[in-house]
Each structure stands twice: as C-alpha cells, then as structure tokens.
C-alpha cells in the first residue's frame, strides 16, 4: 500500500478502458536521484505529482502537481487523465513529442476548457458526437471577446486536433475525423505568416558600421590581452587547487607553522626583521601572537 498523501483519490473517477488505475504515469521518464517508483503517482489518483521528473534545482514541487479533483464531471475527469497521460508519454512521436512536467498544468487547463465547452454545446464529452460545426463554434468562441492572441488560441485549438490523433488512447475513441481538414493549429488560429520577406527594419548603416568597427577592434587589439588574462586566470585556479590539495594533507597546526616559517624566511632574505615592540609600539594583542609563533617555529 502506497502512503503518499498528495496522491490519494478525492472522488471516484470513471474507470478507463485503456489504463489500469495503477498505471505509472512517469513510466519511461528519467527521475531525480532518490525517487522511488513505488511512491509515484498512478493513473487512478486525482492528483498527479510530476516533480520526481523535474531536475531544476529551484523547482517548487507544488508547481508540478496536476489536480484533476476540481473537475466535477467524472467523464471529463477521465478524459483529462487519458489526454494528459498521452501528452506525457507521447505514444505518437512522429506527431507530437512528450509534454514536460512544467507545462502539464497549462495543458490540463486547455483540455478542461474544451471539455466544458462540449458540455454546454452537446451535453457531454462524448467525442464521437463532435463534428466540424462544433469545432468551428469552439474556434469562434475562443476569439469572441478578443482577449486571446492568435498564439493563445493555437494552444486551445491543439486540444481537439490532439484528440483525433490520440483516439486509440481515449476511452470510447477520439474525434472521428481530422479537424479543420488537417490544417495546423497555427493556421487555424491565424498565427501562420505566408510572407517569407523579413519585415524587421534594417539597422541604420552608421549604427551597424560602429558595431562592426568595435567588433574588429576586439579581434585585432584586445584579443591578445583577453586570451592572456584567460590563461593567467586558469593558472591561478590551478595553483589554488594545488594549494587546497596540499593543505588537505596537513593538520591546521602544521599549515600555520609552515606558512609562518615561510613568511619569516622571506623577510630574512629581504633583510627585513620583525618588530619586537621596542622601537615601534606593538598592539598588545600582537605581542603574545609573535611569542607563540616563535615557540611554534623553534620546536
């Protein structure tokens, strides 16, 4: 018995004719280290936790929980699960690649919107009853208030097109005909551009001339200094790594003794001494340290 409290079923859903309730929704996907397959969400759960398949370090687990429990109609909830699983597993790679965990929540919203429209239009989500007139009405509904861009409409239109192609993975079958005669969602939404001419304004010649001039100056004048600085940085990093490795082989006492001896020998080689406090007033906190250092070095 799994004990994942986030993945329990809130209300009973209609059984799927395609997927058993214990189907692993993340089957075939790489998981984060430490994830246990036995604790993953299953098809029958009304909350799917997709965070084990998310590798981004700053990802919030709550952002990758897909909640089907808010869908009142059991038939629409089942359709949403079947559609989401088809999007996650992408059984038709030649048609569409897999949906990522980060976009799953938005994908559910698009499917739910279409399902609720079908309820209002034909009274159910039985896809066999959908015809082109229904889809045309849905397209008109999407653009009726002018609030959605053609790019946003394309995302909504993707759903009925998907439900035709994913028919074998949906209980009762998908939409039985090719929506909009096989036109792409971009074309249907009006997002496609037929002109191949680049309409971006040209960069003025004085501007591009200055950019090219300084680009060449980087290559001809500054490049040697930049490359030399890069080499020096690499040497410093290598030296730092060497020092860290050497320090790791010594105790703290040994490191302190070695560094202090090296410093004193360097001052002796330069003909410089260490003030004892007679000629120059040495802070009280420094004199005991010098005395301790002398004792350490002498034995």
Overall description:
The chain is built from eight helices and two strands. By secondary structure, it is mainly α. The protein has a domain of about 180 residues. The chain has a two-stranded antiparallel ribbon. Helix 3 runs antiparallel to helix 4.
Overall structural class, as computed from helix and strand content, comes to mainly alpha
Helix/strand order = EEHHHHHHHH
Give the distance, in angstroms, between the N- and C-terminal Cα atoms. Answer: 67 Å
From the alpha-carbon coordinates, what is the Rg to the nearest angstrom?
34 Å
The proportion of residues in beta strands is: under 5%
What form results from the Cα inertia axes? elongated
User: Would you tell me the overall average pLDDT?
Assistant: 85
- Number of helical segments with 4 or more residues: 8
Low-confidence stretches: 1-10
Main β-sheet description? 2 strands, antiparallel
List the helices and strands and how they pair.
Layout: E1 47-49, E2 65-67, H1 74-89, H2 104-122, H3 132-143, H4 150-165, H5 185-189, H6 205-248, H7 252-269, H8 286-298
Antiparallel strand pairs: 1-2
Task: For this entry, give a set of tags.
299 residues, mainly alpha, 8 helices, 2 strands, 2% strand
